[in-house]
Predict the structure.
Amino acid sequence: MSSLVSASRLVGRVAIVTASTDGIGFAIARRLAREGAKVVVSSRKENNVLNAVNTLKKEGLDVTGVICHVGKADDRKKLFEVSEKLGGLDILVSNAAANPEVGSVLDASESSWDKIMDINVKAAFLLAKDSLPQIRKSKYGRIVFISSIVGYEPSDILGAYSVSKTALLGLTKAASSQLARENITVNCVAPGIIKTKFSQPLIESESAREESLSRIPLGRLGNVDDISGVVAFLVSDDGAYITGETVVAAGGMSSHL
Ligand code: NAP
């Protein structure tokens, strides 16, 4: 689908996409680069970064790789050092998430709760905060958080994770309000069930897949490009008058998983 992209709305922009060596993040990185942005690609594992960068460079895209575990301050700092070298940051897409445990919210262990909140919420907050020195200098400042449909309607089996994704809806509203007068937009995307490694437990067995599909009015699971196109729209000039919003891209799904 994304091979049909012919828009070049992001020429001259520099973008950071976290957790962008696989899944939704990789598709976002590829899409922003196809639209002309210089994209900083990152994740925790060196091999994944090298593979993703090689793949995208072979497609003629302008990408730079750096190792970044979003929970590590030194790694986050490196992201911004790279964007600075590329001319300064215009677009931050905070996409990384963790879900170490499946189960109801009050059954979550304290260590799982801490990890989920550290990666999904605190790191997103710190990345947005630390992006400001560069993003404030951009004429096109854009911040996008990746939440989830379960941020609206918590899932019984993804209890603590759902709460972390609800926090991102609030972070989007609060940060957008703070930054609106500076012409920096802050938005959020809430995907439904998208085919990636992350969603494997919801789709790998025939019965789980059928159960998931039964909840999706459009009758299909989402593809990563169903999300990357929404992000590209929000960070382009076409999305310039949108801030503080969360776009749900979930095939019409609204109930819990
Ligand atoms: P995925 O396919 O499992 O992709 C994971 C990517 O994240 C890999 O590149 C991985 O690389 C990187 N990563 C994992 N932990 C990281 C960390 N702490 N710091 C930096 N990078 C990290 O996941 P996905 O499905 O694309 O999910 C992306 C986002 O969409 C998440 O925020 C998720 O909550 C959200 N979402 C997904 C779905 C869905 O159905 N898939 C639905 C709603 C929301 P390394 O292993 O090298 O770090």
